[in-house]
Amino acid sequence: MKKLVIFTAILLSSVFSACGFYPYGEDVRFYFLNPKNFSYQAYSSFYYSALSFEQNSEAVNSNHDNEKLWRKYCDNKVILTDISTVLEDFSFSDIQENSVNPFLHYLYSKKDIEAINYLKFAKNCEYFNTWQDDPWERNEYSAITKRNDLLNKATVLASKSRKPEFKKRYAFLAIRLAFYNKDMKSIEKVYGQYFSEDHVNSVIDVWALYFKAISEPNPALKNLYFAKVFAASPAKRFVSWQYFASKVPINDVLNLAKNEKEKANVLLLYGLYNPDKNLENIKQIYAENPGYDGLSFLLYRELSKLEDWVFTPYYSLFSTNDDYWGSDSENENERKILERSDVDRAYAKQVLEFIDSVDLSKVENPNFWKYTRAELLFMTKKYTESLNQIEELERILPAQNLMRNNVEMIKALNLFANQNYVNAEIPDAAKEIIIKNKDNKHFIFALGRELEYLGNTDDAALLYASLIRSKDDYNFVYYKSLKNSHHTFGTYYVDYFDYLDAVYSPEQVSGFIDKIKVLNNNTDSFYRNFYSVDQSEINSLYDLLGTKYIRQNKLNLALHAFNKLGENYFNAQYSLWERDGKDNYYSSSKVFDQNPFYHLKYTPDFIPEKEHFRVNKVSVTRKLIEYLNKANNLKEKDRDYYYFLVAICYYNMSQYGNAWMMRRYSVSSAGNYSIREDNQEFNTAGLAKFYYGKALENAQTDKFKALCLRMQGRCENYSYDFNIENTINSSFQTDNYENVRFEQNKYYQDLKSKYSNQYEDMISGCESFKAYFKARR
Predict the structure, then answer these.
(1) According to a count of CB atoms within 10 Å of the terminal CB, is the N or C end of the chain lower?
(2) Residue span of the signal peptide, if any (predicted)?
(3) What is the rounded CA–CA span in Å between residue 434 and residue 532?
(4) In this structure, how many other beta carbons lie within 10 angstroms of the beta carbon of residue 525?
């Protein structure tokens, strides 16, 4: 039987499709609780996650109650692993007097025939203690018959056994065989003879109660039994949870509980079924059984939930709303997502108030409760109080205590967050903690985000950049920017360079470069041990800086940044063919395959290429400045020509051209809407339209003027497409789209009204462009 219960929000958006990956759920969840640092591995199948619960072998394999029972039977003279070998790996024929296994050797040396015979009988039953997987049901009848025989033998052996422990062991074997034969009456009968629900003293009693619970017809009583099994046996927890019927009214079950402990057991299972706020349930368990480790585990789960609810939106800007499908405009706004984390901070305050009200001397593991208090204080932005609680924990926790690592991480987060805007930095007191946890990507990113929120984008970028050097190759931090809008919900980041490319201003990139240069010459051991940015990364950042200035059309500043790199860098990065270091050549997607001043994609060449130069970012920028200077020179006789070349280049720097890499590091056929500041220009070629207009103003022949208008009209259509795509609603009908697009294009209308003789040539295709350009003079 499998029961799926989804316990947390799963983030899905309207842009998520079968065509590509989009992070959600566990991909984006932020958490700092490391379960290995806490003592609740026996509940590991029920750790909080954005997925459904699943059986965790750690919980099962870490439990050796049966082996411990056998060890006690052997006067503690045999180790658990030797017992486990016999129980798990040996067959019937392996149980022999000459066996070298110490467990069997002990039993034979003691001439314990009853124990040896039991082990042999149990091995005979093993094959039948499972569902037979036979799609044709050919062996079903024979299996049932064989189980009945073994069941009857087990009950006889139970009655004849002289030792109480073997009476129960044989009886349990009979019960388990009855279960696989779907014989609920035999389960009830044998259980009633040898076991009692009120006396569950050993693992055999627990296992028998588990099958008794399955056979119980009363739903409330069934839940009570499963709650007792769940509390008593980590190995049976997952299956008990699966059988537990959470829809049975909780009071019906609690009314059958005979004491506070049983009530706490019941409340625990109902609490595990609650994916939402569970504080009231926790309060009830505390009232019934404050020393219950299940209570502490539920608090651990609640803290895990709060980490997701508060930290995931706060640090990643991904929503944890399980109803999110991209239809709610508020859910699409990252600022709204950030604000919603404050709602859950209010709930964190309620949990904190509860912890402050309890008597910590009564709870299991008071230090864990104090740790929880420290993290909740951090969540509720009471940084000084949190640091005070952490200081107490540092005094009382032994140096080898694993919880100290979590304590230190929350300490570092407090130190980062508890700073003033603009004056925030990497605190000295946190540096050792950072070094120790430098491969914990979510922790390092969270520190960076705290600094970014406080205005220190330089150190934030340094922390983000360090993630690419992490030894953890499996976990990635997916995050967004506050600049995202519903138009760009598909935009997320996993690499710091992409984030800086989209979000940082040129001034911030320049500041980061300056910071790196200072740090690379710094003798501070922290920066040497944590992260040192190499020259190749610095070169990429200068490339980015120049690219950002191109986006702002600050060409001289762009050229200055590009000149820092030199021609060799651009020849290696943006040449038509690149070498991989093994004398193999490969084509690059970011190369300039044509000169952007003379060629247009999908358009026959119509401009003679008068100048030949190696095309890369620095040469294009330099030539664009040169041509603009000539075009703007009132004494230049060919101003129309140079304005036209400038327009061609700006056109090619849009997503429609062959020099898009002047503004972007990648383009997509699925659409190129982004949060970069030149998004509209990149999608509409507005500067090209402007300079085609300047060429028109200086044109001297009707044919060349007609060509300029034709090119302006092409850019106008891109602008029209862009505005339509981002303003219309989903019900827009496109049946007459091309006609509407043409009729509203003022440049095409001007072409038709002012140059009617050239109109048909211009509109019918591109074949006449060459003749019309040649007719410039």
Answers:
(1) N
(2) 1-18
(3) 14
(4) 10
Q: 């019960």: which residue's tokens?
A: 175
The CA R_g of the chain, rounded to the nearest whole Å, is 36
Residues 267 and 294: their CA atoms lie apart, in Å, by: 10
223, 217, 232, 146: which is closest to 187 by C-alpha?
217
Structure tokens at 409: 């991480």
Give 468's DSSP letter: G
Residues 342 and 329: their CA atoms lie apart, in Å, by: 19
Torsion, Cα 100 106 108 112, to 10 degrees, reads -150
Beta bridge partners of 479: 493
Contacts for 392-398: CB closer than 8 Å, 24+ residues apart:
393/367, 396/367, 397/367
Question: Is pLDDT of 337 > 90?
Answer: no
Q: Which helix (H) or strand (E) holds 577?
A: strand 577-579
Predicted TM-score (pTM) of the model is: 0.88
On whether the CB atoms of residues 155 and 171 are closer than 8 A, the answer is yes
Q: Tell me, what amino acid is at 609?
A: E
Q: Which residue shows structure tokens 């693992």?
A: 203
Query: d(Cα 53, Cα 59) in Å, to the nearest integer?
Result: 13
Q: Please give the Cα distance from 557 to 546 (Å, whole number).
A: 7
Alpha-carbon distance 430 to 410, whole Å? Answer: 10
Q: Report the distance separating Cα 433 and Cα 393, nearest Å.
A: 16
Please report, to the nearest 10 degrees, the dihedral formed by the alpha carbons of residues 570, 573, 575, 577 taken in order. Answer: 160
Burial of 316: CB neighbours in 10 Å, binned 0-12, 13-18, 19+: buried
Q: What is the DSSP string of 55-124?
A: --HHHHHT--HHHHHHHHHTTT-S-HHHHHHHHHH--GGG--TT---HHHHHHHHTT-HHHHHHHHHHHH
Helical pair 403-417 and 383-396, crossing angle rounded to 10 deg: 150
Helix (H, G, I), strand (E, B) or coil at 559: helix
The candidate with the shortest Cα–Cα distance to 690, out of 711, 718, 705, 676, is 711
Q: What angle do CA 463, 468, 473 make, to 5 degrees?
A: 125
**By three-state DSSP, how is residue 513 classified?**
helix
Residue 198: φ, ψ to 5°: -90, -10
Per residue, what are the HEC states of 130-191?
CCCCCCCCCCHHHHHHHHHHHHHHHHHHHHHCCCHHHHHHHHHHHHHHHHHCCCHHHHHHHH
pLDDT score recorded for residue 39: 92
Question: b/e map of 560-590 (b: 16 or more CB within 10 Å)?
Answer: ebbebbeeebbeebbeeebeeeeeeeeeeee
**Under a CB-based contact definition with an 8 Å cutoff, are residues 380 and 348 in contact?**
yes
Q: What's the pLDDT tens digit per position in 199-226?
A: 999 999 999 999 999 999 999 999 999 9
- The span from the CA of 4 to the CA of 97, in Å, is 48
Q: Is the pLDDT of residue 7 over 60?
A: no
Closest of 216, 197, 213 to residue 259, by C-alpha: 197
CA distance 54 to 682: 48
